[in-house]
Batch of 2 targets.
Target 1
Amino acid sequence: MRKHIAQMFIVLTLLLTSCNNVAPTAINLSEIPPQEVLILMYHDIRPEPVADNAYVVSTDTFRSHIQQLHDAGFTTISFCKLIAFVDYGYPLPSHPIVITFDDGYRSNVEIAAPILYEFGMTATINVVGVSRGSSVYRHTDIITIPHFDWDEVRPWVQNGTIHIGHHTYDMHRVHQFPNEPWRSGVLPMENETPEEHKNALIADFERLRHIIQAEIGTYVVVFAYPYGWYSTETEAILQELGVRVTLRYLPPGINTIEPGNPDSLFLMYRVNMTEEIWPQDIFELLIIER
């Protein structure tokens, strides 16, 4: 019993640390109206545009996006602030928005983070664990986009610009190799039993969660599905593991967050930001999505 209580205390301490020590408030949650929140999704940022690539935004375009949001009066918030809003009625700013990056490319800390910091904004980077500090795909010699290591991102987490989310340790597969079982994101492999699938997802999730806690000192509350692929079973497993927020990819949409309703934080919609979305279109995009 004492060991169980001690473990729960450690988890609670890590959660509060990662969520900025938001304290409960004596508020009737049913009296607080829902809040609409848009989540933007980025991947790689590069100095120049890349033709026909929906996952790369140039530095100038990204800066213009952030400038447009800033000038329109939007305030970036962390997912922990959304959790606090749901659990305790913690007030959100009048125009809240969440910025996310998937995969954890080096450009996120070298290009995006300084721009976010300049405008007083924050973002959550959902990292793939096996790729930390690597420029090759998994355990191969296939060249891929460079990913940041923990030392590179740690200062940005410490100053509050970046938050870290979970994008699996090694279930974000791109290439299929001979004699290697294929898994589509976190979904079951062919002929894999439900128990085998559950154990595989738990092992992968816990491996990266422990690494994030050791390297960054925060408790994982956000999980972004690779390719947006999910199932009823994966949602149940992740919730058992203590995940409070899950992120999908398609379709794009706006999220209605309800105080007292934790389910409103699961399978949240995002809008993929591309080079073709011009800065002056962002505000119109937000209005359309509402």
Note: Confidence is low (pLDDT under 50) at residues 1-17.
Target 2
Amino acid sequence: MPDLPVVALGCAGQIDPHVHAGKVARSAATVLEGVELVVVQGDTSSALGGALGAQLAGVPVAHVEAGLRSHDRRNPWPEEDFRIAIDAAADLLFAPTALSAANLRREIVSGLVRVTGNTGIDALIERIPMLRSTSRRSGGKRRLLVTCHRRESWGKGMEAIATCLKSISRRPDVVISLVLHPNPRVADDMRRLTDGTPNIELSVPCSHIEMLERISGSDLILSDSGGMQEEASTLGVPLLILRDRTERPEGIASGNMILVGRNPSFIESTVNRLLDDQGVSDAMRRPSFPYGDGRASQRIAAEIENWLRRDVRPAELRSPSLQSPKVPVAP
């Protein structure tokens, strides 16, 4: 594969995500001459900016991870608005699941919708053989992995989660690994709220493969991360979603996740139930593949190639019903 050009747009993050999206759009529009297709992934302000920049330049847009919906514009904000706007602008929409595709068809989007799986699962399955073996028990204690960063959790939400973690940490059989987010505002708040609490270990942000090792080595995960919902299901680790709504309900339907919100008493009671009832925990601890089978990238590449040739028939690799892949077992 030839080296691909790297273009620095010079658009540092902004406090207001809409301002950032506008800056990205204006900068991207100036460098798209001769481009046949712009591919954006996800629901960030950069993704929206890329899609809007393509529109300004008259270039078609493909959206990877299209169709995710919480059906609540406030949860998450602004991601729900951003993905709706990107999907409305896209000519090619690569939905990770049949449910995501159904959301798009319900909205009557004008672009071509294909079910492909999620590329994040491709990356996870590729990395499973690289993971170091880690024990879930630390000094005989069960390990809880926690991440928290969503904008809707800032302020009182973070305080409620911290209160809950400090209460759970009083259990003598538990150690909590709290991985701080790169956003300094979020990290500083969580450090202030939990630092020095016995049985809560604060960790700096880590690489993707290190996070996967932490996931596979945990007894239970508490997180508001979308990507971790997908990864935990694939690795078969129970996860409690620290949000009021999720755009990835497939993991709840598969039995790998529970939506617990940010109510401290409900979170704690759910944690205690999973830790004290091995049968309930074991039922959630089984790998499932609602978000993809590791072949999303192949399907997307084939669909793009067909589209560039203006052959919009389904690519040979596309499968409307994704199958559970044969993948290595995490150590």
Note: DSSP finds 13 helices and eleven strands in the chain.
